[in-house]
Amino acid sequence: MNVVYIVLGIIAVLVFYVLTCIRILREYERGVIFRLGRVLPQPKGPGIILVFWPIDSMVRIPLRVETHEVPPQDIVTRDNVSVKVNAVIYFRVLDATRSVIEVSNYLYATSQLAQTTLRSVLGEVELDELLSQREKLNTRLQEVLDRHTEPWGVKVALVEVKQVDLPEQMVRAIARQAEAERGRRAKIIHAEGEFQAAQRLADAAEMIQRQPAAIQLRYLQTLVEIGTEKNTTIVFPLPIDIMSSLLQMLGKSKAGEAGS
Question: Alpha-carbon distance 88 to 110, whole Å?
């Protein structure tokens, strides 16, 4: 009986040991296993895995996309303007093994790298480029970060500059610049309108010169437009040709009197 009890005890201990070795990894998790201090070639998971302690130890690594907000950074642009810029980065682990053995804390390392990269890259551009070419700068930041985090098994998927805080004096200067630019455009548009109107009037005058009857038709059309309105204005049409003939006759009679 003692032997039976011993065997049952051994079996119970073995069952308890196996149960304590069971680990469950979620679909987005991988387990990096160290056996006697040496990492196994392939991480385990997802699902049920066995970690035979004390010879094995496991590090859980999530594979989901991580979102990290870069705190505001004091940046001096290439044209010597001080601004505060913050950003957000999206990254994920592609190689769980390298994210454990190549860097002590890939989250902290990626965060610090994002801050230094944000200051160095944006410090090489001018303020106008920082404000107007946001998409180009986001792509450049993503490429630089991804190149540096690739040895860690981390993939930077996206970088977005969230906000650019300008000094109050610079905001007023930009507002004055925008107002002056709008005034310049308004003057140019007004001048172009005057030029087009003058050109059309010159074309009309040239056409009337070729067809003298056109001025009479235009004159009659003006009378029709005036007559359609309810007013007390009396319009007496006087052809210009008659006035010119009378003036010529008057001039000839004065010349005859002077000769006599």
Answer: 12
pLDDT in tens, 57-111: 999 999 999 999 998 888 888 888 888 899 999 999 999 999 999 998 999 999 9
Alpha carbons 121 and 179: distance in angstroms, whole number? 30
Of 125, 134, 144, 120, residue with least CA distance to 164: 134
| Cβ contact 87:141 at 8 Å | yes
Give me the CATH number covering residue 145.
3.30.479.30
Provide the CB-side half-sphere exposure for 225 (13 A, CA): 6
Residues 55 and 145 in one domain: no
pTM for the model stands at 0.65
CA dist 78 → 87, 168, 208, 217 (Å): 19, 19, 62, 67
